[in-house]
Amino acid sequence: MSNNATEGRKVTVGSYLALAFAFVFFSGAMQSNEWYGVLDFTTLNGSFGNVVYSVNDTAEGVETASTSLRGKGGSGARDGFIFALTLIPTVMFALGMINVLEHYGALDAARKLLTPLLRPLMGIPGNSGLALIASLQSTDAGAAMTRQLRDEGHLTKRETDVFTMFQFSAGAAIVNFFSSGAVLFTLTTASGELAVGSSIGLAVAIMFIFKFIGANIFRVYLNITEGKEDKNSKNTVIGQENA
User: Measured on CA atoms in the order 13, 14, 15, 18, is the torsion positive or negative?
Assistant: First the structure.
């Protein structure tokens, strides 16, 4: 949807409902094999099945071994192409969902609601909030949505650089942490006491804090190396926010 099509559009109750759905859908809060998993991006995105890479004949019959879609032993440009191919469904699905949500006013609601928060924190507009939420669950979805915001003029080059730094630090933080890192907090010593003297909540908070710190360090670096952001480009985006 073009910027001209969204100019002057009022933020309605439906817009906030669409924004709330987007937060739930991309946050991973509903990630489950239960029925409510249909409200989760990763669950609906699914996964590829396995392909056979070797067949071993045995006395009992045929024994097969399976691996991921990419197979085994790939290298070079061809293996890279297969890897890129596996990203296409995620990117297409994310872009399709963001266009539907944009149609129902989710980006307008995000711009109005989150700009007062994200402007002071990272210097980016509120309509990047959906991409921010998506990046906590999927690096591919977050990157695709950020690229779309940049192409449609919602983000300036400077804002895009800062925002991608936020995403790059601890990419897909929620999914990666709870799928692998959280298990460390269940380890115990020989006496039965917890081996890690901290909490999961504190670990998540530290990740978020340093993601914001990293983005702002990069803002300072850009100000030193490239100077202040061009006021004309910034005013263009701010004008779109107030439209």
Answer: positive
Reduced to 3 states (helix: H, G, I; strand: E, B; else coil), residue 188 is strand
Q: For residue 2, which phi and psi values (nearest 5 degrees)?
A: -75, 165
The Cα 144–Cα 98 span in angstroms is: 10
Look up residue 46 and give its two tokens.
Answer: 């699914």
Run of H or E residues at 65: strand 61-67
Cα–Cα distance for residue pair 228/104, rounded to 1 Å: 35
| pLDDT higher than threshold 80 for residue 136 | yes
Q: Among the residues of 28-105, which ranges form H helices?
A: 41-45, 76-103
pLDDT range class, residue 96, cuts 50, 70, 90: confident
Q: What is the DSSP letter of 56?
A: E
Q: Are 64 and 46 contacting, i.e. CB atoms less than 8 angstroms apart?
A: no
**Which letter does DSSP use for residue 200 in this model?**
H
Residue 125: closest CA among 218, 239, 238, 29: 238
CA pair distance 194, 156, nearest whole angstrom: 47
CA–CA separation, 228 and 221 (whole Å): 11
Residues in contact with 11: Cβ distance below 8 Å, sequence separation at least 6, in sequence order: 105, 108, 109, 112
- Counting every residue written for the chain, the total comes to 243
| Spatial contact of 6 and 114, defined as CB atoms under 8 Å apart | no
Q: 75: Cβ–Cβ under 8 A, 6 or more apart, which residues?
A: none
Beta pairing class for 51-58 and 61-67 = antiparallel
User: Is residue 59's pLDDT more than 70?
Assistant: no
- Residues 103 and 97: beta-carbon distance below 8 Å: no
| Beta carbons of 233 and 184 less than 8 angstroms apart | no
